[in-house]
Amino acid sequence: MVCGKIIVRESIDLNESIFMEMRMKKIEVLVVDDEKDIYTATKMAMDLLEYEGIDVIVSYSDSADSAIEMIDINRYDLIFLDIIMETIHAGYTVIDYINKKCLHNQPSIFIRSGQPGNVPDEYMSLIDGIDGYIHKTDCTMDKLHEIVKSII
Fold first, then answer.
1. Considering the domain boundaries, does residue 119 fall inside one?
2. What is the number of structural domains in the chain?
């Protein structure tokens, strides 16, 4: 009899697990930055969204070339993009590529730069495909969560 109860409880746990997976919103995020610590901090912040029913899968690229390769293979909902990496215009190369390739499924792109004044706010709206700009020093966990929630 005890075995029967355990089996029933396991099946309930399995059903609850399946139900929770079905309810969770999934989002694919790509962090493109030559500083791996930025990825690590972003991943930690995104992992906490699971408690709010959001499953965030975070991938990492440390260069424009590898980001473009990853974008060819995967579909991302959100990209946090540094501009100055292997060259001072590396991030713009990624933006241009996305604008040409992802015509129907364009991800939200947030420039995240440590270079103050690199992209003045008044010019952000002139860059096709950019949804926002965050200075790395202003990039808090709450700000990251706000961005993710805004695109769901």
1. yes
2. 1
CA of 100: how far to CAs of 17, 63, 93, in Å? 40, 19, 11
CA distance 119 to 147: 19
Transcribe 28-86 into DSSP letters: EEEEE-S-HHHHHHHHHHHHGGGGGTEEEEEEEESSHHHHHHHHHH---SEEEE-S-SS
Provide the 10 A C-beta neighbour count for residue 149: 13
- Judge whether 1 lies within some domain: no
Domain with 117 in it: what CATH number? 3.40.50.2300
**Residues 59, 29: contact at Cβ < 8 Å?**
yes
pTM score of the predicted model: 0.79
Closest CA to 23 of 55, 57, 56, 58: 55
Note whether residue 12 is domain-resident.
Answer: no
pLDDT tens-digit readout, 69-97: 999 999 999 999 998 899 988 998 999 89
Grade residue 20 by pLDDT with cuts at 50, 70 and 90. Answer: low
Q: Is residue 13 one of the residues assigned to a domain?
A: no
Q: 123 lies in which domain range? A: 24-151
